[in-house]
Each structure stands twice: as C-alpha cells, then as structure tokens.
Fold these 2 entries.
Entry 1:
Amino acid sequence: MSAVRLPRSPKVLVGVGIVAFFTLLTVIGPWLAPDNPSVTDFIPNLAPSAHHWLGTTALGQDIFSQLLVGARATMIVAIVAGVVATILSVTVGVAAGYLGGKTDDGLTLMSNVFLAIPGLPLLIVIDSYLPPSGRSNSFAIGLIISLTGWAWGARVLRAQTMSLRNRDFVEAARIIGESRRRVMLFEIAPNLLPVLASSFLFTTLYSIGAYVTLAYVGLTSTAVWNWGTMMYWAQANNAPLAGQWYWFVPPGICIALIGTGLALLNFGIDEFINPRLRSAGLSSKVRRATGLPRRPRLGFTPVARPAPRAMTGTNPASTRVGVQ
Amino acid sequence: MRMLARRLSLYLVTAWVAITVNFLLPRLMPGNPVQTLIGKMTGQITTQQIQAIKLSFGIGLNQGLWSQYVGYWHQLFLGNLGTSITLSSPVSTVLKSAVPWTVGLIGVSTVLSFLVGTFSGALLGWFRGSRLDSVIPIATFFQAAPYFFLGTVVLLVFGSDLHWFPVLGAYSQTVTPGWHWNFIFSLVRYGELPVLTIVLSSVAGWMLGMRNMMITMVAEDFVLMAVAKGLPRRKVIMHAARNAVLPSVANLSLAIGLVVSGALLVELVFNYPGVGNLLLQAVLDEDYPLIQGIFLVITMTVLAANLLADIFYFILDPRTRTEAAV
C-alpha cells in the first residue's frame, strides 16, 4: 500500500497543482516581489496599473509585493503548525489505539477535552498574553496553533490503529516475537500513511485559517507580512468600504485557493481509503474508457461486512471483517 | 444512558480544564502583561479597581498558588468573573447582554447549515458522478475562505452595493426592542446576512460527510431491496438518507466548536452586538478580565450545546439505548 497510487481524478490534479503553485510561491515569492513591501515610497491609494499590479496602500506601499512576500510567513506558520500537530496526533493517537486499556482511556480523554474546547477563543486568550517578541515569532505562533489543532488527527489515527491492531499480519509479527516498538513503527505505521497524510493536510488547512485570523484581529506582529496582516491593514484603513477591493480581496482569495487545494487533495486521499468514493469521482470520459456504467448503479460495488458470529466461539478471528 | 453519562463526565472534565487554564495562564506567562496594564491604567481607574484586578490575577499576593486557586473557584461559584477594565462594570453583567445575541445567531446558522448541507449531501450522494458534483469544489472554496473575509465580501456585495439586506447591527435603530412584530421583523432582516455568511462557510462539511456516507449506504442490501420492491425513488432516497445521517448527527457536537470559532468573527464584520464582537474589542483594549471571562463563557456555552447535540443523537439512534440495556 503506498500513497503514490492516489486516484488521478481531476479534483486531485487541480489540488496538486494549486498546492504546488503556492509551495513554489513560498520559496520564490519574496525574490519575485518587485518592491520592498514595507517601503512607503509610492503615491498612496493608487488603483491597479502596469507599475503596481494591485495598486498601493494608504501608506504608499506596493500591494502586489506584500502579497508575494506574505506567502512565505503564512505558509511557514501553517507548515510548522501542521508538522508539530501531526507529530502530536500520531504519538497520542497511535499509542492510545495500540496500547489500549488505561493508557487509551487517559489519552482519549485528553484529546476529547482539546476537541471540546473551542479553538479560536483559546488561541486568542493564549496569544493575548504573548509579549511582542512572541507575536512576531512565526515558530512560536505555529507551536501555539498546533496545540489547539492536533486532537482531531489523534482521534482519527486512534480509530485506524485500533482496526489495524488485530489484523493477521500484526498478530503474526507479535507472535514471532517482534518488539512492541518494531510492530508499531514497521507494521502499523506504514498502513496509517493515508490517514496520516489526510490529517496533516487538514491540520495545515486549519492552521492557515487560525494564523490569518490571529493576524487579522491584530494579535500577531503587524510588521510581519502575511496575508492576515494585509487584510488587517486594509480593514484598518477602511479599504473594503472605500472600494479598494484590490487591497482586501487578493489575500483572501489566495487563502481560499490554497485551502481549496489542500481540501481537494484530501478528497483524493478519501477516495483512496474508501474505493467506493473513487468510482464516484470518475468523469464520464474515464467511465466510457473503462467500461464502467456512466451512471453508477445500485449495489455495483462489493460490500465488506463482518462474517456471521459463530454461536459458541469467542475466537476473535470469527468476527473479523471478511472481504467478499 | 451510559453513553450520555460518559459524555457528561467528559464535559465536566473539559470545563475543569478550561477553568484551570484560565486561572494558570496569567500567573505563569513570562513578563505579566497585566502588570504593565495596571501601570498604564494608574490614575484612570480607582485604587479599589486596581486592587480588584491584582486580586483576580494574583499579582503581589502573599498567598500560595493553591489557596489562590481555591479563592478563584470560590469567586466563580459566586458568579464573579471580575471587572472589565475599559467598561468598568462587572464582566458577568457585560456578558449577560451579549450572550443571547451570539447564541441566537450561531444556533440558527448551525441548524440551517446542518439541514441544508445534509439535504444537499444526500442528493449529491444519490446522484454521484453527475453534473451536480461540481457543487463540491465551490462549497469547499467558501469553506476555505476565512469567515471574516467572506463576511466582508458578502456585506459589500449584498448590503452596500445591491442594498438587498440591511447591514451593521442586530436591528434597525428606528424600532424599540421588545416582543412585537416590528422588532422581530427587523431582527430577522438584520440577521439574514450574518446567517448567510456562516451557512456558506460551514455547509461544505455537512454536505461532504453526508455525501460520502450516502454513497456507502447506497451499496447496502436494504437499499437494493427497497428498489426491488418497487418503492418510488423519493422514498428510497429517504430510506437511505435516514441511515446515512447518523454519523453527521454524531459529529454535530464536535462541529459546534468549529462553527463558534468562525462565527465570532462574523459578528465583528457585521457589528453584531454579541460575544465575538466583545472579545475582539477586549483584545484591542487589552482588557484581560473581560477576555478571560468571555473565554470561560464561550467554552461553557459550547459544552452545553455539545450535550444537547449528544442528547439529540441519543434520541435518534436506538442503538445507543440498547447498548445501555445490555
């Protein structure tokens, strides 16, 4: 099982394209920017022109440059938060699902508590106590965001680990005497890859939203250029009402686009995990080529269901899911 | 009943964690900003108020952390959340007038979003692979856009440019609040755009969950059986949808927290007099007692809503009851 076999539906291809584009922008955006985003050299409040593709701010800064430079800070925080949160959720989720018992109870309680506390208000409270040096530090903010964003992934990973724990190949590895750590790392972890990838994408998506929101509210340093601070300044100068859409709209569209890209990728992973969704995602052209019915018909995918429980047996093998 | 008892104990633990975090945060953060704030406010507020703030944030106290903690709980049970610095009135009084707006706004939008999303998701799942599927990326785009961005665009397009909806505030300034039709009508009109924004932003989640569950459901034998019996298509869809909706309802309690987070910002955009607007104003003013009080109240309200959602699920899914009987 490898994640390379992602279904090549148009959804996934568009998702890959969008994410690749913005990843590239993260790396080269600041070099591409025609001007320094903070320099106030130009005539204020210019409409878009050949010189300033997205016009200028009320302070006379080039908006297009801010957009290009802002990509990096936005994406770095999102990736830091995504990576840290994923590490947290793997640790907690896999340990809870594999070890079971009291450990599971404790860890599950912990992740459920984090799920139940509304994330943004908690973020705002923590962030409001940060000193200015913390607010301008992308890594510190990424870490705090990851604290509020790991629990969902842990929940999904725990469920997947529990379903893997009792499969034959894991049991076989245990019987031939492999250590617990080896079973977790080499037998279970590779099969968690699709769920892991999906949870990483989801957390990154959440982190972009959280970071941009904090910046918009004014809780990150306004001197660090990201798409949220751009909208903060636009709002502070009443740009939306003054008809300066070119100041307020581009960063918002960028955020929505990268989010859509990540979500589309996630749909691809969903289709990979659940093949029934895959055939639903095929275009009519592919359907013709492969001879599948154009309109999906009822009951044309096989259903995996538990084998009937043996009357006397308490043997767990008799209740295992059998693919027919 | 065991399921409900388990959920209830989870929410109690969560409430305890939230309260404890609220207590510890100002006491453990390096370079206490409340101290700086007091320095700034000296002369503007009475020494009594300063004393009260110092007391609730544990500054310059000779007490140990534990006795402070006990005192904190004592104040909470008395309903004392401290005094707002900028509004110089008790936080609980300030919140009492703001909470109903937020609960109303988010409650209505969550229910609407759930209904619209589940209904359209059921149709998308049944007619999967058809042209209807193009709705999914569009809905996803709306979900990925930040709430405040979508809110501002919706406000500009439908409110300021087209004048289809009234904007800013919760009701017209020309009517007096009260239980009469003029006020209720104004309330509904002013609520339309904020509700629309929240529904647009959150509908994709319900839609996709329902669609995927429906696709799985349609392959089950009981659906095939329903078709074979010759039931009209509408009935078959209902049949499958009733079974597919259960995971969505089970997720309702988890989703409320997410919706609340986003919806707080919609209030800011539309200048709605709710808790979100208050929170963001408090953040700008560095009004720490108010920020912390709001966090507590939001968390407790969300937990109560979660419990309601769980009870709803308990009523809807008979399996949760038979399990308890075993």
Entry 2:
Amino acid sequence: MVTTDPTRLMERIDKPAGPRRTSLDDTRGYRIFRVVNTIVLLGVVAVTLYPFVNIVAQSFSSEIYIRTGQVNLVPRGFNLDTYKLVASDPAFWNSYLNTVVYTVTATAISIVLTTIYAYVLSKHRLKGRGLLVGIAVFTMFFNGGLIPNYVLVNGLGMTNTIWAIVLPNAISVFNLLVMKAFFESLPSELEEAAAIDGLNTYGILLRIVLPLSKAVLATMILFYAVANWNSWFQAFLYLDRADMFPVTVYLRNMIAGATSATSVGAVETNAVAISANIKAVTMVLTVLPIVAVYPFIQRYFVSGVMLGAVKQ
Amino acid sequence: MRTKWKRTLLTLVAGSLVVGVAACSDDGADAGSALNLDGKKTASMADYKAGTQFKATEPLDVSLLFLDQSHYPLKEDWLLWKEISQRTNITVKPTVVPYSDYEQKRGLLISSGDAPTIISKTYPGQEEPFVSSGAILPVSDYLDLMPNFKDKVEKWKLQPELNTLRQEDGKFYVLPGLHEKVQQDYTLAFRTDELQRLNLQTPKNWDDVYKVLKAIKAAHPDSYPLSDRFEGKSILNLVAQTYGAQAGWGYVKNSIWNDQAQKFEFAGATAEYKEVVGYFHKLVSEGLMDPESFTQKDDAAIQKFAAGKSYAISSNAQNIVNDYRPNVSKIPGATVAKIPVPAGPKGDVLRGSRLENGLMISAKLAQSDKFVATMQFIDWLWYADEAQEFTKWGVKGTTYDKDSSGKRTLKPEIAFGGINVGAPKNLQRDFGFQGGVFSYGGPTELVQSMFTEEELGFQKTLADKKQLPLAPPAPLSEEERERVGLSETPLKDLVTQSTLQFILGQRDLSTWDAYVKELEAKGMNDYIELVNSAYKRYKEKNG
C-alpha cells in the first residue's frame, strides 16, 4: 500500500495530539510547585554531586590535606603526581583493559540474547509463551545460590576464562521485560505489511523492528554496559589470576582491603594503608568512561524505558 | 494456567533438590583412615628432620590459596617464587584472591570441593565451620611428618596453647603460626609534646590515663583529649584485660574463663565487665573521650588527631609511622609516641596467645601420592628457622647482608617500612618477601629483627607483664554449635549495643540488673551451661 520506510511511518504515529500548555497560562499553584520542585531537586543534585566532586578534588590534592580533612570541593596542595603514579602501574592498566574487553563482550552477548528472547516473547500467538516468560521470571525470585552456581560454572570449565564473566547472567530479566513491552507496543500492522512485501521473520526483525528500536537498544546498551563495567562479584568468584581481574576488583581490594584489616582487628602489622589520594585517583579513572559516555546515551534513556510503558 | 504454573514450579524445585543433593554427596572424604602412608611418599625425603633443607626428590606443583594485598600485589617474577622452587624443587601455584573478600572466597572454594591444597591466612577459630564437612585435614594426626613444627612446639612449650585449638574429636584442623613470645602491638599513642608542656608523666595504668586526659582537658576545655579509632575496640580490649574481663577486639566469644572458679562465665555480664563499662562511662561523661570514638571511621579519628583537636589515639607501630607522624607534622613541635600498655586492677597483665594465623590443608591431599612430600614442604617453608628468615629477609647477599654478630641489614637499594626510605626497590612489592602469606611468627629475635629502636623499647616494656591463664578447650559438637549459633549473635549484639548505651550515658548504669535479665531472656544461662558441659566432657575424655 504505502511506503515501507519505517521511520516515516513512525513520524506519523508520533505526531503530537494537540497544542501544549505554554508557560504563559500556567496556574499560580503550578508556578509555586515549580519553584519548590527546583529547589528540592537542586538540593538532591548537591547531595549526589558533592561526594563525586570531593573525590575529584582529593585526587588532585596532596595526602596531608586529605588526612587532616581540609579538602572539600577544591583541591588543596594541587599536584598531578598521584595521577602519574597510578598511571605508571601496569597492573592498573592491565585490569583496565580487562574491564573494557569484558564490558564490550558481555554487552554484545547480552544485547543479542535479550533482543532475541524479548522479540519471541512479544508475539502473543507463540505457543508456550507463558512458560517461557515463567522460566525467565522464576529466576528473578529464586536462584541456586552461590556454591551450586560456582560448582556449575567450574564444572563447565569456565573458571579463569572470560566466559565465566560474560555468560552467566547474560540476560537480565528486568531488561528483558522492558524490551518485550517495547516490542509489543510496535504496531503489528507494520510487520504484516512487511510480510506481505515478502520479508521473512528474520528480515522483519532485522530490517523493520530493530531500526525502529534504536531508543530501547541504546537504553539496553547503557544498562548492560554500566552494570558490566561496575560488576566485580563474578570476576571475584570465578577468576583466580590477578592478571585477569577487572579494574573493579583492583579498586575494591584497594579500598575495602585497607578498612577491613582494622575492622577485624587482625594483627597485620605490615598492613599499610593505601594513601587517600591514590584511592581517589583510581576511583576517578575507573568511573571516567561511564561518566563520559552517559550524557550522550542519556537522551535515549527516558524515552527508551517509557516507550513500552503504555500499551496501545 | 494456575495448575500449569504449579507443576512447572514443582518440577523445577524437585530438579534443583536432586542436583543439590548430588553436588553435596561427594564431599565426605574420609581422612581418618589415612595414617597408612604407603604409596604416598612420591618425591618425599626419607631422612627429613628438623634443621634439614627440604628438597623434593622430583619436581612437584603445590596449589596455594594466596591472599593478595593491594599494596604489594602478587607478581610472577618475584624472587620469592624462584627461590622457593630452586631450594625445594616445588613450584607453588597460587590461586589469587583479593584481600577485601578473602574469607568469602575461601568459604566458597572449600564448600564447593575445589580448594587448593594449602589454604593460607586462616586465624584460629576460622576453621570451625569447615570441620564437620571433612574437607579440611585434621593436621594433628600428621604432626610426625612435620619435625620443625614439633620442634618449636616443644622448645617453646606451646602444647597448652595448641590444645586450645582442639575440636570435639580431640584433633585440630589449623596449623597456626607459632610465636616464641606473646606479641602485643596495640596501645595508646599520645601527643608527647603536650604531655611535656603540661608536665605530665607517661601513664602507667588506666587511672593514670584518666588523670592525664583530665589534665589535658583542663588545658584545652573545648577538646576531647581522646578521640579513638578502630571503633574503640582496641582500647576496650586493652582496658578489659587488665580488669579481668574481655571487650572490644577481645570479645570474640560470649564466654570467658574464670580460672579461680574453674568454669566459664558469660563475658558480658561479669562484675568486671561492669567495671570496664563504668570506666569508659566516666571518660565520656567527663568529656575526656570523644563519644564518636565508638562509631567514627578511622580516617575521621586520624583527621582529628592530625588537626590537633585530640591528643590521644589507639595505635600500633605502623600507625605511628604512617598515619600520625607525617600528618601532625603541620603542627609545630608536635611529637607522637606509643605509651607502654597500661596496667589495671588485676595488675600488670596481658592476655594473649602465642598462636597466629596459619594454614588449613585440604583433606584431599591425604589421598594423594604426594602427601608426605607436601607436608614436609609445608613444615620447612613455614616452620624451619632458615625458611622463616628467608621469607622475611629474602636471600642473603641479594636482598640483605648478615654480619658475624648475626645482625641483618637490608641492601641500601631496597626499602621496607621505615628502613631505607626512598630506595628504588621495595622488599615486599618487588621481591615478595615479608608477605603476610609466608612470613609470620617465629623466634623473637627474628620477629623483632626489623623493629625500629623505638618499637624495641616498647617491646621491652611488655617483657615484665604477666600472661593471663588461657581458657581450656571447650569444643562443641556440630549439633551444639548449631544450637549455640542461634543465640550467640543475638546475645553478642545485645552486649555490644548495651555496652555502647551504658558508656555514652543513654542508659543508666543502675539498670545493670535489668540488662542482665534481658541477657537471660535471650538464653544466656543455657549458653553458658552448654559451654561448661562441653568443657567438662572434653576434660573427661582427654584429661
């Protein structure tokens, strides 16, 4: 009948229904609400931003000012030596590289698997759909526990390989359900039209559905990438070699290691506390990529999650 | 739909049960019947005894659970590894576990039946959860394979201390680090310049400490003279032992041994414990001790000390060098030093054990043909004099020199702690020596060989202290341990909570009897009865 170009079709669907309220005819109550709202949210921003800025300030400060509690928002005793010191540690860069490799691989695998699973589940005519959903949802509430999981992964020969990091938990059920809802919200007429024009199932998924799903895909990539970048527990469990550790394990050992020694009262006389500015520098370098990428993906973020929220 | 769901659920639950049972069933290795050593002597030395250099007759690999410290992370090119394999013909294969979560991973590996042969850094008591699973070797059965260990136990008369490790079956499962003398590193550190300025003597007992703090308070009314770190647990421990109680770090179990009555008592309810609580209440209520001492992070306490807002803080030798001296240097003329551990109402006493953290050995080793060789290797590397010097100081001529009087000096290009500060290499980071996994315990001469003059002076003050009697073993059966496990933590939590309330004045000390009643309601008496009956049972069985 008409064009098969999906973006043009979507434009028609997305057209706003009527004129928006402009700020001119806002009510008094609404204006007061906005002022209060802004103040409250600015407070939240300050509270969330402060620790972050503080760590950044610490990373540029010298040790003695941190230890005497004089560093707040601005670096004191400015120096870049700590950055040079951390950057000259090959173990840090090695684990950094590991994190990049694990994150990219794990995210790619997760996206592929989640998309396939979610697309299948979005088709109501599928037989056994309820069971497939059930199997996924079951894992949200029950799991085998730490030791059986370890025995399983070890039994499959995956310990001390990248697969132990990227395969278990490749599908996040929450993400799966968000994606499923998104696919369900796509008009089925689109796919029918594509089918009439001769596309098979895979063609429909790859050429029609996925190009229309950029928002949700970007959101999923963001979710998975952040989760993988920050994850340390899998690596801690399944990896026994220091040269395979991701940077999160490196960082955790540095931060938690120093504090747990004293909390158990272990007579570890040679436990030297890692200096505060080295910790700060490592933290800053570790979160930097995520912080740098976030603003660019963030605009898809809200629309991606919300798109599936209302069924048509 | 509903029934379908139910059926799915049931199948899955049943399925996981079967898998779970199957996974557990192969754990019950029988270690007791392994005293016959035929066929287990591959690569072992026939004439191995104390003082002999161990060398396997053929190359072997031994796996080791290695605790990785972030300030000297494991490197494969450490001289330590090379020397170990050269000297013993054994290659150590480390399973690297970050320090931060070591205990969790250790538990996981043992429970999954996948633990390395040697499980390092295990403090006495930490082996208990694994005893009943049979995954850990009852090392006491095999001490004949360990001549150096036996030699040290005999020479330093450690048998009574060793007995405290015994489990209900009369065996012990952890190979502890052995010290010749009781070690005590923690005490209070004072701003000594302030003591001098105010003409105050170094306090000798806890009453003196009170008086000194009071004098400082008089000079600085708006300060808290003592703002402690370690959540106050170090100073609680020190005060309690001189009052005949246990608190803070010393409060490991709810029971305390009463040597006069020859029975265990509930540690958080004794009259002595009340006195300890009263002492701290006095400090806090008179403004001599920062109420935040018990909750603040270490960094916060250090900050107050470094900023000159407080004048005393708990410390060990390293804290002085690393945390306090560099940071108070901004205050002109400020000096810091440890004071000798103060005495108390029970005299100049010290509670302590000469046992340190040590090793567990996987029970699987006993079935291996390399059993004897591996045990000899462990005995040599961790307990032979020569090896203890090697894992601490490194290789003679390469990392250190030793003169004719036996005095060792680190090579000038190698730094460690306060020695050769600024040297390009570090004994721990670049060579792997003096690491927590291999180097601990040993003869006093060796333990103190890297101490500074200052620390040696501190250690001398400990020499005159009387050691408090040790608690006898009272090992619980598995069933009892489960019963105790239910009440142990709630009781301990109540003690900790109430102690803090009493000290901070949120609860009046006159309600002490009500507090004891609360403990009784939580099963205090049953708990102590159980411990005492276990003690009697063990005594009758093992003498």
